Amino acid sequence: MGLFVFLPWGMILLRRKLHPPALRQAVAAFGCTALIAGSWIVRMWACFPEEALYEWRFKSMHFSTAVAGHTGSWHFHFDVIADLVPPLAWWSVLPALAWLVIRIRSIEQRIILLVLVVGVHLFFLLAVNKMVSYTLVLLPFYTIAIGHALVSLTDLLPALRLRNTIGALALVALAVPALDIERTQLRHTVYAVPREEQLHRRQQLAVLAAEPELMKLLTGDRPPVLFHVPMVHDIAFMFRHGVPCMSIIPTEAAVERLRRKGYT
After folding, report:
1. Percentage of residues of the chain with pLDDT beyond 70
2. Taking residues 190-215, what's their average pLDDT?
């Protein structure tokens, strides 16, 4: 996704017939990107070739396979717009984007907007795996288009005071539903009587309370490795305490191999 920025940039370069100063800037930017990301990738493959191969294959599966059941129709990422900018949806945001493109005077700015919006949606349309956050990168364009459409409509009113009043009321009318307090509470708190989708969060809070007692058991001269930690909790525990965790129950051979390396 980070390389998408070079797609409209490259088209603008072609439009400028590869003008040397503009070309040097693009090459320098791509070189910085390649140096930072490339050095990390090279080190990963050099130090951890088996793990790198697994990760590479797993990530490539997202394009051809619905990993962990993340399926969706061809219009999945259009429907996601309603989740990003409630109470609006694709039927209001897409016309607003079209109106913005029509009114932009700079051809190059049109290229940037069109190529990124169409390119990102096309890429994830072709990808079999569907997830809500994939097109989140376009949210700034969505909100700019909505703001532009709102100003364009209020500018049709004859009196400045009326335009300001109607514009402010419309902004409030959009902002209040967008807060979506009910959804925020559902996703980030636990009700006194938890809903089914909140049960895992209640479990997380219960695990937090038990962590100090668990850490008392992980003392001694030999570094510990913790097994049979429920999924998600293993990652959180590692971040909080620096103790390697895995959700699996290890084989006897794995335990013996770890002991020989000095782990407990």
Report:
1. 100
2. 82
pLDDT tens-digit series, residues 127-148: 999 999 999 999 999 999 999 9
Instruction: Name residues whose C-beta falls within 8 Å of residue 113's C-beta, 6 or more positions apart in sequence.
Output: 97, 100, 101, 104, 141
C-alpha gyration radius of the chain: 25
Rounded to whole angstroms, the Cα distance separating 127 from 174 reads 32
Q: Which residues does 124 contact at the CB level (< 8 Å), separation at least 6? A: 77, 130, 134, 135
Please report the pLDDT score of residue 145 as a whole number.
96
d(CA 115, CA 7): 7
b/e 137-158 (16+ beta carbons within 10 angstroms → b): ebeebbbebbebbbeeebeeee
- 78-71-58 Cα angle (round to 5): 115
Residue 19 has pLDDT above 80, yes or no: yes
State the number of CA atoms in the 13 A half-sphere of 196 facing the CB. Answer: 0
- Residue 36 — pLDDT band, cuts 50, 70, 90? very high
In angstroms, the Cα distances linking 64 to 10, 59, 214 are 27, 10, 41
SS3 for 226? strand
Query: For residue 6, what pLDDT band results from cuts at 50, 70 and 90?
Result: very high
Which residues have C-beta within 8 Å of that of residue 114, sequence separation ≥ 6?
A: 101
CB-based contact 7:116 (threshold 8 Å):
yes
Task: Give the predicted TM-score (pTM) of the model.
Answer: 0.75
Q: Any residues with CB less than 8 A from the CB of 205 and at least 6 apart, and which? A: 190
Containing H/E element for 58?
helix 49-64
